[in-house]
């Protein structure tokens, strides 16, 4: 039997996604975000959180996902090897903590830096974002390129 893992399930628009619970440092209510000149459109800006600065990313902008009024917006702040490079992901709602060992490998057509695996539930499938790769320099370059623009939306779903 596969090892049981814990995930945080959240919404981007009307769709559910998840991240491994172990990579989330904290979940906070939205805070004031300062725009960064020259940043890609999907980078909302920076915010002061406790004693540090966090870069806030909104993947809805990059993948053209319509925000929803359902739920309560949150910012998930991720663990990082470097204290100066903390990233917060803006989400439309945090749904629940899931425990699952029913995981599927991702199809080869999906960009390897976006989705790590897929959780199978009784009624649904939930893509698990690969946080370690999603915010790496290589993937950020890919996300920001015109080359991958048309493929990005398909690859996240």
> What is the second-level CATH architecture?
Beta Barrel
Structure annotation, total helices: 4
What is the CA-atom radius of gyration, in angstroms?
15 Å
Please mark out the parts with pLDDT under 50 across 5 or more consecutive residues, or reply none: 147-157
Mean of residue pLDDT?
83
- The CATH top-level class label: Mainly Beta
Query: Helix and strand succession?
Result: EEEEEHEEEEEEHHH
Main sheet specs: 5 strands, mixed
- Helical content stands at 10-25%
Strand order of the largest sheet: 3-6-7-5-4
Strand content: 35-45%
Oligomerization status of the protein chains: single chain
Overall outline: globular
> CATH fold name, please?
OB fold (Dihydrolipoamide Acetyltransferase, E2P)
CATH superfamily: CheA-289, Domain 4
Q: Which structural class do you get from the secondary structure elements?
A: alpha+beta
Distance from N terminus to C terminus (CA atoms, Å) equals: 28 Å
Strand-helix topology:
Elements: E1 5-12, E2 15-20, E3 24-28, E4 43-49, E5 52-57, H1 59-62, E6 74-78, E7 87-91, E8 93-100, E9 103-104, E10 115-120, E11 125-129, H2 131-134, H3 137-144, H4 149-156
Parallel strand pairs: 5-7
Antiparallel strand pairs: 1-2, 1-8, 3-6, 4-5, 6-7, 9-10, 10-11
């Amino acid at each position: 039997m596969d090892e049981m893992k814990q995930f945080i399930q959240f919404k981007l628009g009307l769709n559910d996604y998840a991240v491994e619970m172990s990579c989330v440092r904290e979940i906070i209510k939205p805070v004031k975000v300062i725009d960064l000149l020259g940043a890609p459109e999907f980078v909302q800006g920076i915010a002061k959180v406790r004693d540090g600065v966090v870069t806030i990313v909104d993947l809805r902008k990059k993948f053209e996902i319509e925000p929803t009024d359902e739920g309560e917006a949150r910012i998930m702040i991720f663990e990082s090897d470097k204290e100066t490079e903390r990233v917060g992901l803006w989400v439309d709602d945090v749904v629940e903590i899931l425990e699952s060992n029913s995981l599927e490998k991702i199809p080869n057509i999906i960009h390897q830096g976006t989705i790590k695996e897929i959780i199978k539930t009784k009624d649904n499938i939930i893509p698990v974002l690969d946080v370690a790769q999603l915010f790496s320099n290589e993937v950020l370059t890919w996300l920001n390129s015109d080359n991958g623009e048309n493929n990005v939306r398909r690859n996240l779903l």
